[in-house]
Amino acid sequence: MAVAETVTRSRLAVWGDPIAHSKSPDLHAAAYRVLGLPWEYGRRQVAAAEFAETLGSLDDAWRGLSLTMPLKEEAFRAAATRDRHAELTGAVNTLLLGDEPAGFNTDVGGIVDALAEAGITRLESVRILGAGATAASALVAAGEIGATRAEVRARRPERAVGLIDLGSRLDVAVGADVLEAPALPVDLTVATLPSGTVLPAATAAALAQNGGALFDAAYAPWPSALAAVWAGSPVVSGLGMLLHQAVRQIRIFRNGDPSIALPDEDAVITAMRAAL
Questions:
Q1: pTM for this prediction
Q2: Which residues are catalytic?
Q3: Which sign does the torsion angle of CA 179, 237, 94, 124 carry?
């Protein structure tokens, strides 16, 4: 991006519904201080039905948006261009604004980076709890680190049709069933259930028994109810995903590319981690 544009396009925000709980403003503010960027990052509650009109009302001061639920599919539809992860998942959590909005999914990379930080860099099988947008990102992330088999467990397994199709594009065999269904042992369980979800004790115990390591996308409250019963295997909270997806967002907002590292990125990450 041109230097002039870096200065003039200085407004950013996270949108979602609800949004008051979001830690994104603290993460981004910490990074911008280290990078010396004169950017303003806020939060705004935007319902899905309001998204298109609200997006259209933004002026040229706006650089980009972070999107959380329930806006990732809305942002996907609004994006004029999309990166590979967005195209695969049908979800955009980052919009780079300009003449036309460019859409990215940094959740996939955030999951990969968070797992790597926990020492999980290779696996063959995964169980995904839930069937929404984060589940799609989890499936792509698992495929990128070697998974060839995935079990989707959801209250409404019929919602997993899109994940089964996505698995075929990734060469990952995907099956779907209810949360209580008997399951084969897996290397990793990824929980994408809403924060605060409490499963019946017997269901949680059965999932933990042969579920391998647990990556729980939730982080508040922590430990989650599922993490609290996960014994004998590593447990990774969603804070790692939150941190690393935000790093990739800031790369996009500064460089236009999630793969181009930030200046002194280690110091940026340290400051962001301290803000969590």
A1: 0.94
A2: 72
A3: negative
